[in-house]
Amino acid sequence: MTIESDPSYPAHWEADVVLRDGGTARIRPITTEDAGRLVSFYEQVSDESKYYRFFAPYPRLSDRDVRRFTHHDYVDRVGLAATIGGEFIGTVRYDRIGPDGRPASAPADEAEVAFLVQDAHQGRGVASALLEHIGAVARERGIRRFAAEVLPANIKMIKVFTDVGYQQKRSFEDGSVHLTLDLEPTAESLAVQRAREQRAEARSVQRLLAPGSVAVIGVSRSGAGVGAAALRNLRDSGFHGHLYAVNEAVTRDLLDGVRAYRSIGAIGAPVDLAVIAVPAERVPHVVAACGEHGVQGLVVLSAGYGESGPEGLARQRELVRQVRSYGMRLIGPNAYGVINTAPEVELNASLTPAPMPMRGRIGLFTQSGAIGIALLSALLRRGEGLSSFVSAGNRADVSGNDILQYWYDDEATDVALLYLETLGNPRKFTRLARRTAAVKPVVVAKGGRHTPAGHVVPDTRLPEATVSALLRQAGVIRVDTVTELVDVGLLLAAQPLPAGPRVAILGNSESLGVLTYDACLAQGLRPLPPLDLTTAAAPADFRAALAAALASDDCDAVVVTAIPWVSEHALADDLADALREAVAEVPGKPVAVVHVELGALVEALSATRGLPHPAPAPDAAPQKPAGPIAAGPASEDRIPSYPAAERAVRALAEAVRYGQWRRGLAEGGHVPEFEDVDEAGAAAQLAGLLADVDDGAVLTLGEWDARELLARYGITVRSALPAPSADAAVRAAGILGYPVALKTTAPHLRHRADLGGVRLDLANEAGLRRSYEELTDLLGKPAELQPVVQAMVPRGVDTVVSSVIDPAAGAVLSFGLAGVASELLGDTAHRLVPATDRDAAGLIRSIRAAPLLFGWRGSDPVDTPALEELLLRLSRLVDDHPEVIGVSLEPVVVAAEGLSVLSATVRVAHPPARGDLGPRTLPSY
Known about the structure:
It is a single chain. By secondary structure, the protein is of the alpha/beta class. The chain is 35% helix and 22% strand. It contains 27 helices and 39 strands. An eight-stranded mixed β-sheet has the order 1-2-3-4-5-6-8-7, with helices on both faces. A seven-stranded mixed β-sheet has the order 11-12-10-9-13-14-15, sandwiched between helices. A hairpin with a 6-residue loop joins strand 16 and strand 17.
């Protein structure tokens, strides 16, 4: 059913979800066209499950039952179904009831809820996903509580209700368990939801990276082409599972030494992963065959999709819809492939030829195949291995967010490297990155900073430096180039995190030591004077000097510089061994080597003497380490080396900043609760304001609507009365009381006191009339100026508090001083939403003009706690309501006691169908 066939059909309730086992299902409203599906579904449910649902034997549904369960008004009676392949696997419904338990309509705010899940799909988390979504629907329709009757023997369903994290009451009445759930989200319910999301999405990626069997579809008989290359790479990688080749025209049993079939359906065994390399127009047929065969995931190497224009984008959306309808997940299209170096898997389902990258502790994700090739080559040249590699191409389904979910608790991955052109869902990315960065480094190189015409990467509203700063607040190490991505990744994978910014420098070249010293200063590090060992230094001298530096309490990291001897190759291995011995003797601090034309040393330093130790479980990661924090279990044998001092120091500086961020986590910070916030009232007001606004349109609220919305979050905006004439200004002043301010509100003059559009401290009618005449004589007619009168507020520092939804960073809270100087110099600070109390305190102190708030040159300090509270209240408003896409409070006058918001602009729009708020769901296509 569609909106066209039934205007009341709530299409925005449709969603794809990842289930507990990593498969997917589609959740959608049940319609009148689902009668046949409902009957078929019910016939496949066991008698026991039917008994648990209806409390009595109920072998079949009557015509009346079918009509009742398929006819809904989507307000007081709602039914949702979880489907795979278009068929029901689970259902949930609610019926609004009154205090007497009988059917009711609004304002009744309670509903009975009941589930039924097909036995073959029980244990997959279907009911939990349905409960999340029906709960969100109920809240949207004004329902605040669910009531449920469950038989005591139905332990699985009782657990679904009790584990959801909502506040609930439980009683035993008339032989059944009576449960009442308060649907207001809680910290516990949100934590439960996100933990389930992480487990499910990580499992879905794990099924793609560790399949038991793989089929390559589109393998040419000649051995040429993408499909044949992928098959060879899988075969030559030593993949431990079953491998099949598929070509509809095959006439022999083997292709390139691999068992061959004319179709995937002809394979008489399960296939977990299919690698598709056929022309785009044939992909839908192949996907359907894979779905019918029960394939769990696809890697689509085929091109001709979103990267090729509008027609290709439409084809890509249909591909995602088709893939998810079968409960599968997709990497691609236009993908380069995936690699998993785990010894029990050894999967190379990519276009990377043999030899496969060696095992390592770095996970690598790219959107671009070309960048993927460059990164793999760079890591190979530097002697570094991988735990896993995903090049997702157009990332129509599986994205960097999914891979972060997998890496979060992947014991084989210590460092996460990502090359991204967009962040997709920026709120979710920053949330996942922050959580992952708390246990292992996340390093991101982001392309698309300067978007060429016609390129698919969207531009950002905020300056790049601001986006970088915001990502750093989430613990992300943001780098500018793929070279820096590799440089930083090598250091973090091989070395512990430095405990501070103090750097010892030693080597056999005074000039190279000075260059390193200067590079440290440029990166904000605190270098010690370089120790020149002279060109006569032998490996033993390096060993002694490095061991002494590492043992010193005066440094947190060491950079070793080296230039060639006459006989470079003869001494390279000796020097590498000497440096390793010193590190082994005094472990715990990072060491990096800067070399000049010492290729043999690079090779010797990157060689390892054994595999790294297993990583600790994430929940065992210390939150407040006593000593240096480990980026991961660093290999005691590998020391990263760099051909330039600037590159080594940049990598070290990133490790220092990341270590500081990790240590800062121990200090905490929380998002405060405000008892006077009217979240429900704000939601209702926004729904009313947007009722007649088209999707994609932006509505700027009128003054009174903006004041009312902000007041629901405890933000009071001072009244300003219109003054279209001098007489009207006098009447306004009489209402507000003298002294007053007279100011223009025309867009070109708004907040421009420097242009003479503001007159303050008008104490009487005569002064007001005189100022009104001067204002209109100077700047124009009243109709052009749109003057207003406002009561004077206590003098203080004029500031600007704002928030915006940025496509590259998500919801952002901003602060600066009002005035042309701050605007000209860009002296504005930013924090991600939701902001903690620590974020708010840091925000107002991070602008260059912050001393003006704290008693600069003998002035009175202003009420910064009141300012911090205002920031937190605005953050809460924007976080609670994604409809609010922009707020500007200007000026906010912060006095010695209290503050006054003199003007507010609020912009609202319909939120995306699915964001990072509400029930867990996959991105829409």
